[in-house]
């Protein structure tokens, strides 16, 4: 069929544009009367054309479009024809394109007079191919202006032209799975996966179920699970195979409690690894009394493999004390030998090259509580503090640093505050290692007359509580009965202060023993200072 259009207004001869319904000058109605709407003529794709005299006739529509023309109502796709019009059983067929489902076209673009028409009964009809694409728009009914041009249809419109506001044509079975934009809340139907809308999903929520295909499998049985994604397996290099997150090392934070002694070591906030190490243990003396041991070592960061050096030293010293004390060795002598054993263990880590520089190195401080005596030994700048349970008594530092600052103070060249404020303050003058100078282990023995707590720590802690009074203020009052908690508090204090270094601390409670009965074996060894409030001096 052909379709004629006017080139000028019949009333005032004003030139008309394609698709005008009314004259822009006089308002003359150019559309056919409602009665003529029943004899609809299908439209065919109209390419954009410049304003020109009307073509005598439009090209005949394709066979597929002509076949649909016999069934299309006056209002276009999905709009039933008015009463008295000729329509085929396929009237009310949904419009082609991405909005082929009538319920998926919420925007109404059509003649308002057609919206109120009653829907007609219809049957599903196979959709003939090929279909017009959105790039080739068609305009049903009388000529009308396309307000959107010839590009992609606007969101909400089913296609270029009128939508289906009330026809609700049945979807074509050839269209495949139905696309639902109104679920839930629309009419009853099935979801794309075949589960009825509103019915219980027998498989539950996908987010609560097992990971989907392609997700990283969980850690293998017996392996470590990533602390970041909690799904990937941690490889032998310490990284997650799924997300690549570096895992905390085993030594980044270590805690241990043996009832009478507790220790905590933490990497801190600035270092990439923990180069400190500790060892705590308990054994029995020949007389049946208990002996408690705490060893703390700090690896020298400027040396090679400092973490291995500190671990080797702590382990060797602890083993030496556990071997010597049950045999009845004097605690001070046992401590001296333990430091020498620790030095030998660190020396063994050095490369087998004569004169090798930058050999592994560390510092060491240890405490032994046995038989009413407190024995301290150290090399380097790791420290031991005495904090009485009665906080009215004076706390004291029990060690003296092997450092540049301590030498300046001992020589009277600088005050303590000035020396430790210098950038060279922490340059140590004594350490354990193959390249160390003549090793001179420091040992001291005390016999306190009242109970208290011994704090054995590295400079990662005492940098934030340098004086004995500051250390006593940070240490909880119940440290004697809660040593692990107290060690955690001290480490937390250092972390709150900045955590610039590794932090390791051991808390060793000291309880005074009752006087021995006459005839009981007296403890061997030199007499210790009766009061721990006096500054400890090394005995070498």
Automatic annotation (TrEMBL):
Low complexity bias (residue ranges): 63-100, 161-173, 210-223
Biased composition (Pro residues): 44-62
A Pfam family reported for this protein in Swiss-Prot or TrEMBL: PP2C_2
PROSITE patterns: PPM_2
Disordered: annotated span: 35-223, 512-540
Gene3D superfamilies, sorted: PPM-type phosphatase domain
The name this protein goes by in its record: PPM-type phosphatase domain-containing protein
Organism: Streptomyces amritsarensis
């Amino acid at each position: 069929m052909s379709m004629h259009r006017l080139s000028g207004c019949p009333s005032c001869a004003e030139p008309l544009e394609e698709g005008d319904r009314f004259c822009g000058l006089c308002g003359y109605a150019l559309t056919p009367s409602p009665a003529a709407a029943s004899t609809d003529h299908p439209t065919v794709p109209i390419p954009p054309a410049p304003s020109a005299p009307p073509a005598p006739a439009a090209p005949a529509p394709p066979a597929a479009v002509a076949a649909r023309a016999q069934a299309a109502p006056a209002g276009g796709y999905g709009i039933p024809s008015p009463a008295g019009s000729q329509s085929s059983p396929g009237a009310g067929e949904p419009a082609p394109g991405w909005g082929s489902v009538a319920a998926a076209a919420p925007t109404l673009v059509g003649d308002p007079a057609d919206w109120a028409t009653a829907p007609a009964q219809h049957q599903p009809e196979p959709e003939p191919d090929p279909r017009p694409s959105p790039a080739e728009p068609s305009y049903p009914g009388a000529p009308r202006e396309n307000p959107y041009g010839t590009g992609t249809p606007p969101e909400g419109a089913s296609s270029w032209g009128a939508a289906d506001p009330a026809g609700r044509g049945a979807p074509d079975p050839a269209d495949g799975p139905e696309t639902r934009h109104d679920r839930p809340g629309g009419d009853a139907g099935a979801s794309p996966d075949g589960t009825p809308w509103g019915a219980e999903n027998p498989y539950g929520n996908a987010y609560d179920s097992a990971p989907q295909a392609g997700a990283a499998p969980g850690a293998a049985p017996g392996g470590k699970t990533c602390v970041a994604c909690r799904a990937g397996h941690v490889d032998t290099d310490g990284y997650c195979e799924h997300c690549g997150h570096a895992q905390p090392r085993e030594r980044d934070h270590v805690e241990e409690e043996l009832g009478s002694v507790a220790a905590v070591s933490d990497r801190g906030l600035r270092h990439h690894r923990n180069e400190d190490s500790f060892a705590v243990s308990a054994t029995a003396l020949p007389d049946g009394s208990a002996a408690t041991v705490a060893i703390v070592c700090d690896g020298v960061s400027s040396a090679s493999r400092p973490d291995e050096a500190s671990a080797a030293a702590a382990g060797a010293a602890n083993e030496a004390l556990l071997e010597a004390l049950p045999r009845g060795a004097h605690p001070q002598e046992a401590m001296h030998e333990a430091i020498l054993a620790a030095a030998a263990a660190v020396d063994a880590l050095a490369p087998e090259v004569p004169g090798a520089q930058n050999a592994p190195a560390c510092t060491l401080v240890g405490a032994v509580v046995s038989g009413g005596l407190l024995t301290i030994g150290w090399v380097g700048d790791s420290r031991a503090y005495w904090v009485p349970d009665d906080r009215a008594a004076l706390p004291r530092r029990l060690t003296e640093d092997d450092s540049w600052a301590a030498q300046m103070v001992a020589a009277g060249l600088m005050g303590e505050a000035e020396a430790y404020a210098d950038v060279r303050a922490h340059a140590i003058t004594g350490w354990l290692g193959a390249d160390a100078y003549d090793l001179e282990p420091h040992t001291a023995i005390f016999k306190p007359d009242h109970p208290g707590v011994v704090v054995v720590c590295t400079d990662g802690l005492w940098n934030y509580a340098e004086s004995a009074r500051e250390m006593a203020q940070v240490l909880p009052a119940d440290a004697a009965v809660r040593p692990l908690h107290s060690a955690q508090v001290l480490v937390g204090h250092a972390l709150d202060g900045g955590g610039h270094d590794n932090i390791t601390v051991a808390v060793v409670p000291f309880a005074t023993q009752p006087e021995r009965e006459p005839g009981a074996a007296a403890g061997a060894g030199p007499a210790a200072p009766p009061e721990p409030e006096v500054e400890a001096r090394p005995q070498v």
